[in-house]
Amino acid sequence: MDAAQLDTIVERYPGATGRVLGVLEQVQRRAGYLPRDALEYLARKLAMPLSELYSIATFYSFFTLEALGEHVVTVCMGTACHVNGAPRIVERLERLLDVGAGETTGDGKFQLTTADHAFSLTSARCFGACSMAPVLRIDNRIFGYVTPDKIPAILRQFDWEGNHHRNY
């Protein structure tokens, strides 16, 4: 994003209340993520330390500092999903999408994107669909009662082709 686009976004939020969150949300909506150069510019424009802006951007789970893939696969890691197999879901997705090296199997937040930028694999704390655990979301579609064996068929609904990925 260029300076003029960022200035236009900042001008939409003249008041202090909700200004930073509103600006960051609009930047992410336009760019798809929060680029570092945009954060540096906004820190100067909003007269705040870059570290403070970065802290806000990394505190809220809906912001991302990296460009996401065309399809975002989010695995619920809430208690019900975790005890019903979410770590195995993540492990299978890592292999099928050829991302990660096992570092995502915990319940920590992660974001991994395929080399072709077709898919990003992320996690969330809870979707509020505990009765269907384990649950995953691709873009805005929720899938419940997921097992590792169901994942290839789910991914194919989003133009995934298993023969292009190793460890299928």
Tags for this entry?
168 residues, alpha+beta, Glutaredoxin, disordered C terminus
How would you characterize this protein structure?
There is one protein chain. This protein has seven helices and five strands. It is of the alpha+beta class. It has two domains: 3-59, no CATH class; 71-164, Glutaredoxin (3-Layer(aba) Sandwich). Strands 2-3-1-4-5 form a five-stranded mixed beta sheet, covered by helices on one side. The radius of gyration is 18 Å and the shape is elongated. A hairpin with a 2-residue loop joins strand 4 and strand 5. The relative contact order is 0.13.
What's the helix and strand layout?
Elements: H1 3-11, H2 19-31, H3 36-45, H4 50-59, E1 71-76, H5 79-83, H6 86-97, E2 111-113, E3 119-124, E4 136-138, E5 141-143, H7 151-156
Parallel strand pairs: 1-3
Antiparallel strand pairs: 1-4, 2-3, 4-5
In short:
The chain has 168 residues and is α+β, with helices and mostly antiparallel strands. It contains 7 helices and 5 strands. It has helices spanning 3-11, 19-31, 36-45, 50-59, 79-83, 86-97, 151-156, and strands at residues 71-76, 111-113, 119-124, 136-138, 141-143.
By CATH, the superfamily of the largest domain comes out as Glutaredoxin
- The secondary structure category is alpha+beta
Residues in helices, as a percent range = 25-40%
Number of strands: 5
For the record, the CATH class of the largest domain is Alpha Beta
